[in-house]
Amino acid sequence: MNNTVTTKKAKPASLDRKKARAGWWFVMPFVIGLVLIYMPILVKSIWYSFNLITMPKGKFTLEFCGFENYSEALFSDPQFLQILTASIKQLLFDVPAIVIFALFMAVILNQKMIGRGVFRAIFFIPVIISTGLIESIDSSSLQSYMGSGVDTGNAQQSSAAEIVSSMDVAKLFGSMAVGTELVDYVVGIVNNIFNIVNRSGVQMLVFLAGLQSISPSIYESCTMEGASGWETFWKITFPMITPMILVNAVYTIIDSFTAESNTVMTYISNVYSTQKNGQTISSAMSWVYFLVVIAMIAIIALILSSFVFYQRRD
Amino acid sequence: MNSVMNKFKKNTTSRKEMKKDFEGKLSLRKRLMMKIFSFEFLKNVVVKIFMYVFLIGISYIILYPFITKISASFMSNSDFHDVTVKLIPKYPTLETYKFVIIENDYFEALINTTLLSVGVALLQTLVTALIGYGLAKFKFTGKSIVFGLVILSMVIPHKTLQLAMFTYFRYFDIYGIFNLLFGETVKLIDTVWPLVLLSLFGFAFKNGLYIFIFRQFYKGVPDELEEAAYVDGSGIFRTYFRIILPLTVPMMTTIFMFAFSWQWTDKYYNNLFFISGDAPHFLPGIVKVPDSLASIASSSSPIQESAVLNTCGILVILPLFIVFLFAQKALVQGIERSGIVG
Question: Nearest-CA distance from B26 to chain A in Å?
Answer without folding.
Answer: 27
